[in-house]
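Aim 2 progress update. The chain analyzed this quarter is reproduced below.
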Amino acid sequence: MNVADSGTVLLFLLPLFSTACFPDFPGVSGDSAERSSPGDTDEADDPTGEEQPEDTAPKDRGDSGHQPWDTNTCIGFTDADGDGFGGSEGQLVPCDDLPLGVVDNDDDCDDTNDAVHPDGVEACNGLDDDCDGTADSEAVCGCPVHPREGRPYLFCADNANWEKAVEACRSLDSYDLVVIGSEQEQAFVFDAASRVDHGDWWWIGFHDRNAGPELEPDAGWEWVDGSAVLYTNWATEAGQPDNADGDEDCAHLYDGSGLWNDLPCGTTAYHGTQMHFICETTR
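Predicted structure tokens:
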């Protein structure tokens, strides 16, 4: 085929090629392959040429006609302790037919104890009985309460010897004379005690009443609840503990420094300095 013949064939096929390659897509003409800009108006859809309001009607969501969220479905919460208040475990349930053990709220702060819930009555027991975010208070415990890591400590400024201090703490539900297990706890206890009553001394739950003479003065010390001795803060520069007169078997905090000293367990005051005590929840 010569050049002249090939040109003739090309002119013959060009209309067919235009139609095949540019079908009637929106914005593309099969004859001219021109693209319309986003602002162009389709006069066939809007013969008046006026701007039409946006269609805000709900779209068809399928043959069922239901919305994807069933308006009769709610989130229910497991009420494990049966007190009418749910914990944090949620599940989808029918709104008008809650399963047994499921309620419509997650207000319980302890779903393992049916006495603890927002309508509970606060007691001095180391628990947040009414779910107000605070366990115990001076109103129910009778002593100023200072919490550490959510656990309440009672700083009782009553005068008492060591035995009476233990008895007072144990008369409350889940309390004992304080056990200090770390430098951080020591700092907290001393700071809180100083704010409650600066100038007096505070009994702690440390003693060596069971130690034989061969263990005096610094061996044989133990915590009132049998906890391991992990930390001590004796006033060693003052020679404490010294078991003066052979009967100093109970420990207290000095005011001013927080260092520990031993005294006779029956002491209620020492040269005018009153003996107070600190209780700690056992929970």
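Residues 70-119 form one domain. The helical segments are 3-21, 138-141, 162-170, 183-196. These observations will guide the mutagenesis experiments scheduled for the next reporting period.
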